[in-house]
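Milestone 3.1: sequence recovery, worked example.
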């Protein structure tokens, strides 16, 4: 499958909002996503699939705050999963964080989300903490997973 990772832009607000609705119980709205376009600390990317690269199959959001990068969300449409798209998106965010000279990249994830935990682990993320009852619907702790960048990289 041909996949191209592109910067998030206004034309992708609606497709990404659709992905949010399909993938999450508490989706980001079109308005919230559009605001990220104006947010200097935000670095969002979309994965485009298909011969005309018109279909947005997934996306990742990252914010740079002081010396760290925070993944706000990563999601791939169900019919596009297990084709390496989540991995491509995460690697793009990691490369972006390194290019910004940040020290680490971090995120929260449900311990029950074995697909996501496995994706992060294979990219070098380590569980460094746990936020009690971090998630709603259903209530669940949030694992804090972090990838610390090597000073020599
Ligand atoms: C997590 C998610 C983004 C992964 O996207 P994806 O494009 O399917 O992931 P990839 O195909 O790149 O998979 C990369 C690796 O992740 C892990 N992985 C992905 N899906 C998995 C699954 N269902 N079960 C176990 N491991 C899985 C595997 O290690 C996989 O490598 P492999 O295919 O060589 O075994 C996707 O499942 C998703 O959108 N889930 C719903 C939204 C979500 O939970 N986001 C994370 C919020 S913290």
């Amino acid at each position: 499958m041909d996949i191209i990772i592109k910067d998030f832009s206004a034309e992708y607000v609606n497709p990404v909002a659709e992905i949010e609705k399909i993938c999450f119980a508490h989706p980001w709205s079109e308005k919230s996503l559009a605001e990220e376009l104006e947010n200097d600390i935000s670095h969002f990317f979309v994965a485009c699939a298909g011969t005309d690269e018109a279909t947005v199959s997934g996306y990742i959001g990252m914010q740079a705050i002081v010396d760290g990068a925070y993944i706000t969300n990563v999601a791939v449409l169900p019919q596009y999963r297990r084709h390496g798209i989540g991995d491509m998106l995460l690697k793009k965010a990691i490369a972006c964080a390194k290019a910004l000279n940040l020290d680490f990249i971090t995120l929260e994830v449900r311990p029950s989300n074995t697909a996501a935990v496995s994706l992060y682990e294979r990219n070098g993320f380590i569980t460094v903490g746990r936020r009690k009852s971090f998630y709603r619907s259903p209530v669940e702790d949030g694992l804090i997973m972090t990838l610390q960048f090597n000073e020599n990289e």
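The longest helix spans residues 85-99. The longest strand covers residues 55-65.
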